[in-house]
Write a structure and sequence with these properties.
The chain has 627 residues and is of the alpha/beta class. 37% of the residues lie in helices and 17% in strands. The chain has a 9-stranded mixed β-sheet, with helices on both faces. It has a 5-stranded mixed β-sheet with strand order 3-2-1-4-5. The protein has a 5-stranded mixed β-sheet with strand order 8-7-6-11-12, with helices on both faces. It is globular and about 60 Å long.
């Protein structure tokens, strides 16, 4: 019997993606933004779908079905009911959204079939949170598990609890629009001056610099939180129902002023807003997870949805033993919906069996995107006029480790591209975690982003417990857990001058410039013997690296450990601010030439930036886009 191929699609809202599944096994998955170079690209993922089909070695006519991650008519029902409920106040928002639906979203079947070059086969529609739940449970290493999904909103649901057993999945509880933890977090993201749907990471990174002085305000005025984690938001303080912004004047009055202007200096208020909503978010997630465990009677939990990317909350779930076993979909946001839809179609509509490979998951290290042969890499470098050397075997990994030990910053491009937002060793920028100024150097000179943003450590899996406090038997291969640095490695920093620290902590009385200086001053304080990856609260968003999941990065880490004795490197995504992670060798070369990267390691080739022709450097010296 020929294999059954199903293509999953997520599109038309943000982070569109495609995934190909063969008899329940994930063959390929990628986000459209990596091909188009448009960050968060929401358009139909034609390039991602073409890649998946090519990787699977099949044509569009050989698909058994295409599964879409959403039910658009249910979403339209929610939008129309909201606008009618608010009328006439929601008119401006309706006039903005209406043409989008009239142009394409009412005719999604046509758009999908045309986008796939005239596909004539079966088209299946999945509910948004079922797609998230399927992406969480079916690739997990659990035969049965509780499931928790939390995001902004799907059709009507904003969070769900369910149970997975074998090849079956059922959602048993839902929280509905407009009460949304994801939108609450996004409202604070907006008010702190960051972009919604991309700046939430910044808010999480900013939180340790603040004090939780707004927690009681949030609990007393914005939400009615119940013991099971469900809640009601007071919509008098928000504008996302019918307006064009997330918050309103009433919200500003509660939180000491209007939204911060994007790109303006950060003040202590934004730090305190971040810390406060982070603490509330963690409490809601904890309560939901406890309720999921209680209602299902299971001690394993699978997470997906955008809020599942909040690695601080995830780490707390394990640290406080809310559940015994936790697995998080590495592409937890909407891109992962494509994967979930394809798997849901296989197990539900095609009655396909599920294979569980305990203790491993089915994501293949999330390295599911394009990869390139040595010949293709060399052809790309020649086309760019690059100067390079070839080092066969483990030569590039060894040389990269030597350069990192010398304080160089290396772009690492090896094997398949990651699926999801995290750099996991396929498309990474690497640096020495022992350098106390490396965090500021990477942020300001390489990534061109805010200096407070933390960086994640990659650590040899077998030595992870030497550096981080991991619960017994726990790994973190997908960089989705924030864990404490081992106490014996911590350094108590000398406190900044009383005048600087005091002015920064006075809230509204501190000047923006003083607060900003305070933040950068604290950034450069050594907090452990791996300071470049140790955040202000002595935590780190850890990736444990094994030879099975990420062989290229493992080779670099092992060589670095042999040279220095340290088994940890800084690992951040191979891109600059406002751009997607690099996909092709040409993308990687361009990124090196536009930044202060010292080397590009792209096995079996090594490229030194300083050795490149001046003409090539001028070609790639262009403005860095801002998000």
């Amino acid at each position: 019997m020929p294999p059954t191929h199903i293509l999953g699609i997520s599109a038309f809202y943000h982070d569109s993606a495609a995934c190909l599944v063969r008899d329940g096994v994930i063959v390929a998955a990628a986000q459209e933004e990596r091909f188009t170079r448009v960050k968060g690209d929401e358009r139909f993922p034609a390039n991602a779908a073409a890649f998946c089909l090519e990787r699977g070695g099949i044509g569009i006519g050989e698909l058994a079905a295409v599964a879409f991650y959403d039910k658009p008519l249910l979403k339209l029902d929610r939008l129309l009911e909201t606008y009618l409920w608010l009328a006439p106040r929601g008119l401006r928002s309706f006039l903005k959204a209406g043409p989008l639906w009239g142009h394409s979203r009412l005719f999604l079947e046509r758009e999908i079939r045309q986008g796939l070059g005239g596909y004539q086969g079966k088209l299946l529609w999945c509910e948004h949170h079922e797609s998230h739940a399927a992406s969480a449970f079916f690739p997990s290493p659990f035969r049965e598990s509780a499931i928790l999904t939390i995001d902004g909103v799907g059709e009507w649901a904003t969070a769900s609890i369910g149970i997975g057993r074998g090849r079956t999945l059922e959602l048993t509880h839902e929280l509905h629009w407009p009460d949304s933890l994801g939108l609450l977090y996004s409202a604070f993201t907006y008010h702190a001056g960051f972009r919604v749907n991309s700046g939430e990471y910044k808010l999480m990174g900013l939180a340790p610099y603040g004090e939780p002085r707004y927690v009681s305000v949030i609990r007393d005025h914005l939400m009615d939180l119940r013991e099971d984690g469900s809640f009601t938001l007071d919509q008098r303080y928000f504008d996302y129902l019918g307006g064009l912004t997330m918050t309103n004047d009433a919200f500003s009055a509660l939180f000491d002023g209007p939204p911060r202007a994007p790109e303006s200096p950060l003040t202590q208020r934004e730090m305190d807003l971040a810390r406060s909503v982070q603490e509330v978010t963690e409490e809601v997630v904890m309560r939901m997870a406890r309720h999921a465990r209680h209602t299902t009677g299971l001690d394993s939990l699978c997470l997906a949805g955008g809020v599942a990317l909040n690695a601080v909350a995830n780490g707390r779930l394990l640290r406080e033993r809310v559940v015994d076993h936790l697995w998080i979909q590495p592409a937890a946001g909407d891109a992962g919906g494509a994967l979930g839809a394809a798997l849901l179609a296989w197990h539900r509509w095609f009655k396909g069996e599920r294979t569980v490979n305990e203790p491993d998951d089915g994501m293949r290290g999330a390295l599911l995107g394009p990869e390139f042969t040595a010949q293709q890499v060399e052809e790309a470098l020649v086309a760019e006029g690059a100067r390079y050397e070839r080092l066969d075997g483990d030569g590039v990994a060894r040389r990269a480790a030597e350069l990192l030990a010398q304080g160089k910053v290396v772009g690492w491009f090896s094997g398949a591209m990651e699926f999801g937002p995290r750099a996991l060793g396929g498309r990474s920028i690497l640096a020495d975690a022992r350098d106390p100024r490396m965090q500021a150097t990477l942020n300001l000179k390489i990534k061109f982003r805010e200096g407070f943003r933390p960086f994640a450590p990659s650590v040899l899996a077998e030595r992870a417990s030497e550096y981080f406090v991991l619960p017994p038997g726990v790994e973190s291969p997908y960089m989705l857990l924030v864990l404490p640095v081992q106490p014996r490695r911590r350094v108590t920093p000398e406190v900044a001058t009383a005048s600087t620290a005091g002015s920064a902590q006075t809230g509204g009385g501190a000047t923006a410039a003083a607060a900003r200086r305070w933040g950068i001053d604290r950034l450069n304080e050594p907090r452990s013997d791996i300071p470049a990856v140790t955040h202000l609260d002595h935590s780190a968003r850890v990736q444990t690296v094994s030879a099975e999941r990420s062989p290229g990065l493992y080779s670099v880490l092992r060589a670095f450990a042999e040279i220095t004795g340290c088994a940890v490197l800084v690992n951040t995504s191979f891109n600059v601010r406002g751009e997607p992670v690099v996909c092709t060798p040409a993308d990687a070369y361009a990124c090196m030439m536009r930044t202060n990267l010292d080397y590009l390691a792209i096995p079996p080739f090594l490229v030194e930036r300083a050795a490149q022709p001046t003409l090539s450097e001028e070609r790639w010296r262009q403005a860095i886009p801002l998000d």
